[in-house]
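Researcher: Go.
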Amino acid sequence: MKKVFKFALVAFMAAAVAVSCKDDPQPTPGPGPEPEPEYTGPEQGTSAWSVIGTVLETSWDTDYVLAEADGIFVLKNLKLAAGNEFKIRENKAWDNNRGGDFAELGAGFDVTNGGANIKPELDGFYDVYYNPAVEQMAITAANGTPSWKELPKGLAWDYVLDIKDWHINSTFMFDEVSAPIKLNPAALTFQVKFFSNKWNNCKFKDKDANGYQLYCNRLGEFSNAAESQTVLLRFSNDGNADGQLCLNAGFLGLNQDQLAVDGKAYVWSTGEWHVITITSDGTKLSVYDNETLLKEYSQSGLADEWKFARYDISMTWKEGSSDNDWPLRQAFNGFVAYTRAWSKALTAEEVAASLCDVPADSEGLEVYWAYNCEEGSVVANQAANKDYALDFAKAWDGNGSKNNTANYAEAGWTPVEEIENGTVCPAAE
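Model: Structure:
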């Protein structure tokens, strides 16, 4: 009996040991790491701007469209690799593109039309930003926030000059005719900031409310005292397309006196501010709309000196009292914010930086008339240590004599808040 029990006990223990070893619990395998989702490309938008280059194993043949929000453009989740280079361009065309030298992650860097290819030397997923208000781009880590340079606030425009119905004399001679501003034609820049409400359709012979024929839209003229050497700015001149710039500047070494800038391909828009800039450096004359270079013309045979002695706002002197006056039939339907003349040819970078206010002591700044007046007749010259204020009460008539009839009361000092899209400079808000 004892032997049987002992045998049974030993067998039970062996069985228990065997069961215990066999069923020792093991950790249950987990699901493991989630596989990385397949990369399907950047988050594209619907704006006019796009990235193009060697990104994503392309070779300058594929555009990736940026999204736009509050005036800033972004392409998110762009996969970059060392050695990639790219630019952005508008409407998938090369006539308006941006490039520049990348500085550091997250920081805005300056870009220009026709600038260098952007070579960030980064490897991973990034967001690419473009801020046209400061003409900078930035590359950030995914969902990062870019930092932009601050533009100087400078002059804040509360008023601009309405010239669409201007029954006053508007030719200004500086310090009589005896003391013009003597300038070198091979080192000049002219700028006017303007806003057009509507282009007169001269090609199809529009008429005004009184049935009189409208002609061109005359923005202004820089000239010598005799008006024989001029830079004349007109739009929609008879026979040309509406909103097309017609430039008279033959004395600046051009082979023709009158140019239809950029053929009939470029039309200046209405309902927004533009800065028209004309630069002359002795080898080429350049025409800009804001920071965009529209055209360059070869120059030769320039004179050594040009005497800047008069400036016309819109049309020149008024010939009589009738609404059928020739000057009034060339009236400019819109506003002007400022006029500038420089004794240097601004570079493309300087043009882009000068669209709002500029420091009074800027190199080469000769006249800077900011039409930021609530009332009165005098428009001061903002350039440092310069005379040559414009005085509407001392405009010159067509016979070369002053008109002191104080018609400046008809000048339209207009609050910018009354103009849709009328803010002159975002930095001044």
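Model: The two ends are 109 Å apart (CA to CA).
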